[in-house]
Automatic annotation (TrEMBL):
<keyword id="KW-0804">Transcription</keyword>
<keyword id="KW-0805">Transcription regulation</keyword>
<comment type="subunit">
    <text>Component of the Mediator complex.</text>
</comment>
<feature type="region of interest" description="Disordered">
    <location>
        <begin position="146"/>
        <end position="167"/>
    </location>
</feature>
<keyword id="KW-0010">Activator</keyword>
<comment type="function">
    <text>Component of the Mediator complex, a coactivator involved in the regulated transcription of nearly all RNA polymerase II-dependent genes. Mediator functions as a bridge to convey information from gene-specific regulatory proteins to the basal RNA polymerase II transcription machinery. Mediator is recruited to promoters by direct interactions with regulatory proteins and serves as a scaffold for the assembly of a functional pre-initiation complex with RNA polymerase II and the general transcription factors.</text>
</comment>
<dbReference type="GO" id="GO:0006357">
    <property type="term" value="P:regulation of transcription by RNA polymerase II"/>
</dbReference>
<dbReference type="GO" id="GO:0003712">
    <property type="term" value="F:transcription coregulator activity"/>
</dbReference>
<dbReference type="InterPro" id="IPR019404">
    <property type="entry name" value="Mediator_Med11"/>
</dbReference>
<keyword id="KW-0539">Nucleus</keyword>
<protein>
    <recommendedName>
        <fullName>Mediator of RNA polymerase II transcription subunit 11</fullName>
    </recommendedName>
</protein>
<comment type="similarity">
    <text>Belongs to the Mediator complex subunit 11 family.</text>
</comment>
<dbReference type="Pfam" id="PF10280">
    <property type="entry name" value="Med11"/>
</dbReference>
<dbReference type="GO" id="GO:0016592">
    <property type="term" value="C:mediator complex"/>
</dbReference>
């Protein structure tokens, strides 16, 4: 090989690459607005457009909205982790570290305290270091959003609380 670096060596992104990635995220946010506009337009009653076409337009624009939103979420998390790796931001909680030092100085007891600690273990601190709670909450939100969107199929009567849709 002409290079001294192995093909698996870590190469951090350059400033211009980071700016390009942020620009792509910005474009995706604009796409979300377009998908939202298309979905809302499809919900507006139109005598010239068949109901099935409106439903299909709404479904496809909401699918695109959710896909784009998920893409933005993933890319933003990558940017945040990249900033932390570069030492630009610090996501650690210094107050939790200081509290942890005070806990180590105290004698360890196995009875739980009012602040959520057992001995030298702070349950809240342990949970905050795990990504699982965040992932579970995010998955629940995505599932709820999908259920809301899929549950909007209805019978096609257009009635809300017994009132017919205006034509």
């Amino acid at each position: 090989m002409a290079s001294n670096q192995s093909p698996n060596s870590f190469q951090p992104f350059t400033i211009s690459e980071r700016i390009q990635q942020l620009n792509e995220i910005d474009k995706k946010i604009a796409e979300i607005m377009t998908h939202t506009s298309t979905a809302l337009t499809a919900l507006t009653p139109s005598p010239s457009t068949p109901l099935s076409t409106q439903q299909q337009t709404f479904k496809s624009s909401m699918d695109a909205f959710i896909t784009t939103l998920h893409t933005i979420d993933v890319h933003m998390k990558r940017q945040i982790f990249g900033l932390e790796e570069a030492g630009i931001i610090d996501l650690s909680n210094d107050r939790a570290d200081a509290a942890d030092q005070r806990q180590k100085k105290k004698a360890a007891t196995l009875s739980p305290t009012a602040v959520g600690t057992v001995g030298n273990l702070d349950v809240g601190w342990l949970n905050s270091r795990r990504n699982r709670v965040e992932r579970d909450m995010e998955a629940e939100l995505w599932r709820t959003g999908r259920e809301v969107l899929e549950g909007g199929k209805g019978e096609g009567t257009g009635a809300v609380k017994g009132e017919p849709m205006e034509e």
